[in-house]
């Protein structure tokens, strides 16, 4: 917002200097201080002060002795008629009583204030600019008043922006809290379901045991089933602990951990190759020259690769290939792609793949990919997925180089899972600019 070109002389010069001094203010307080300096330079009052609420804080600037008087003026204006604050303008001491704010006139007289400007946002008071008389007692001109109005309007815009940003942050935090509660509810429901099934089987056989105790085949079956179901519960509990533990420990563990990605991924693929072969799937690994090490613990990277490769093998359902590739990125990071020839996913499934206990396989627990995301989050890495229904899925992991810094959340693209209807893999696989986390 620039000042009108009709402004003349010292006012125009001060407005120009203010525009030059504060192009993109870091905060409302920074701009308010600069604005008050511009008022002092243009109007040359004996004293001036400002109080304003920005975000969740209230700040004062200018002559500190005026702070109590400016606060008192603000309290009075908070009770002022709505019409006065809806279209704010500078209020002279001589006209305060006639504007249905007689108490303001008393405060201005007691503090020897000549002008008060209410900083508002849609009739809600955000602050006050207070200006005293000139040392030589010359009155302020209409141009002086217009300059104050324009300065105050600019401060109000920035203060309203910060108030809106604070409200948006509160809404985001509330939304995140609701999502966490919903996630906990889904996890609890999934956990109850997964544990209830083996317990029902054990309970059923236990009830029948007194009647069929003499049946050796029944006892043998009962023993095998009980041990199998207990192992199932134990495995589930172990996966839950593995899923939860990284969120508590990885921040410190990964701070000084580095990994040779090519060596770690290659050795992991060698271990998994026989598993893939037994399922009728070919596992391939390709690695370009990697100059940098990655900022992630080797055990955690191995767990990530195991989960993604096993997920790909299961998706192939007894035929096809799983391809693992590692490559360097221009940013210095390292990218790992895990692709499979499976059936791909539709958008509904793809949007939930990182959600705990979500699975499309009857024998699955739904914690593998959730654990992958948790491990990568702890290392500052990102994971995205590109899937084509009927043509396979590619997971892409981007690891930070040693000493690298994760991009601020605001700088990352909007999180999403991409479901692409394409005939050729080359249509969409490279490059993958969307290093994203699915919206759940």
Explain what you see.
By secondary structure, this protein is of the alpha+beta class. It folds into two domains: 9-168, 2-Layer Sandwich (Beta-Lactamase), CATH 3.30.450; 256-427, Histidine kinase-like ATPase, C-terminal domain (Heat Shock Protein 90, 2-Layer Sandwich), CATH 3.30.565.10. The protein is built from twelve helices and eleven strands. A hairpin with a 5-residue loop joins β7 and β8 (334-340).
Task: Summarize this structure briefly.
The protein is 49% helix and 15% strand. With 440 residues, it is of the alpha+beta class.
Features:
5-stranded antiparallel β-sheet; disordered C terminus; 440 residues; elongated; Heat Shock Protein 90; disordered N terminus; 11 strands; Beta-Lactamase; alpha+beta
Shape: elongated
Instruction: Determine the CATH topology of the largest domain.
Output: Heat Shock Protein 90
**Class based on secondary structure composition and strand pairing:** alpha+beta
Number of strands: 11
Instruction: Please state how the strands of the largest beta sheet are arranged side by side.
Output: 6-7-8-10-9-11
Mean pLDDT: 76
Major beta sheet, specifics?
6 strands, mixed
Work out the radius of gyration: 33 Å
Distance between the termini: 39 Å
List the total number of helices: 12
**Please, how many domains?**
2
Helical amount among residues, as a percent range?
Answer: 40-55%
CATH superfamily of the largest domain: Histidine kinase-like ATPase, C-terminal domain
* CATH second-level architecture of the largest domain: 2-Layer Sandwich
In N-to-C order, the SSE pattern is HHEEHHEHHEEHHHEHEEHHEEE
Specify the CATH class of the largest domain.
Answer: Alpha Beta
- Low-pLDDT parts are 1-6, 246-252, 407-440
Beta strand %: 15-25%
């Amino acid at each position: 917002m620039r000042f009108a070109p009709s402004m003349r002389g010292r006012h125009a010069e001060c407005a120009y200097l203010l525009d030059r001094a504060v192009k993109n203010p870091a905060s409302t307080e920074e701009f308010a201080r600069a604005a008050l300096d511009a008022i002092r330079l243009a109007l040359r009052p004996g004293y001036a002060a400002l109080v304003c609420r920005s975000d969740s804080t209230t700040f004062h600037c200018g002559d500190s002795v005026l702070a109590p008087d400016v606060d008192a003026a603000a309290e009075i204006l908070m009770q002022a008629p709505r019409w006065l604050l809806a279209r704010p303008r500078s209020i002279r001491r001589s006209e305060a009583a006639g504007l249905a704010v007689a108490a303001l006139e008393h405060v201005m007289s007691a503090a020897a204030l000549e002008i008060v400007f209410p900083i508002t946002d849609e009739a809600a008071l955000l602050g006050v600019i207070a200006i005293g008389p000139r040392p030589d007692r010359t009155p302020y001109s209409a141009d002086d008043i217009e300059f104050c109005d324009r300065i105050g309007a600019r401060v109000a815009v920035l203060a309203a922006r910060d108030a809106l940003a604070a409200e948006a942050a509160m809404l985001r935090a509330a939304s995140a809290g609701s999502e966490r509660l919903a996630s906990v509810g889904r996890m609890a429901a999934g956990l109850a379901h997964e544990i209830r099934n083996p317990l029902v089987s054990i309970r059923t056989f236990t009830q029948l045991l007194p009647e069929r105790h003499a049946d050796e085949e029944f006892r043998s079956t009962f023993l095998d089933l009980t041990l199998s179901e207990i192992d199932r519960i134990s495995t589930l509990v172990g996966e839950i602990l593995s899923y939860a533990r990284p969120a508590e420990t990885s921040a410190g563990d990964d701070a000084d951990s580095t990994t040779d990605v090519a060596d770690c991924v290659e050795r992991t693929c060698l271990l998994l190759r026989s598993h893939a072969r037994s399922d009728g799937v070919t596992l391939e690994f390709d690695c370009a020259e990697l100059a940098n090490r990655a900022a992630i613990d080797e055990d955690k990277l191995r767990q990530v690769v195991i989960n993604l490769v096993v997920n790909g093998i299961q998706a192939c359902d007894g035929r096809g290939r799983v391809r693992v590739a590692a490559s360097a990125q221009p940013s210095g990071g390292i990218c790992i792609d895990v692709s499979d020839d499976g059936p791909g996913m539709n958008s509904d499934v793809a949007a939930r793949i990182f959600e705990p206990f979500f699975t499309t396989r009857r024998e699955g627990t739904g914690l593998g990919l959730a654990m992958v995301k948790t491990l990568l989050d702890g290392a500052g890495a990102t994971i995205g997925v590109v899937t084509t229904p009927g043509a396979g899925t590619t997971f892409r992991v981007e690891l930070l180089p040693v000493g690298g810094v994760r991009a601020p959340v605001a700088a990352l693209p909007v999180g999403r899972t991409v479901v692409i209807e394409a005939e050729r893999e080359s249509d969409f696989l490279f490059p993958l600019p969307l290093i994203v986390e699915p919206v759940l």
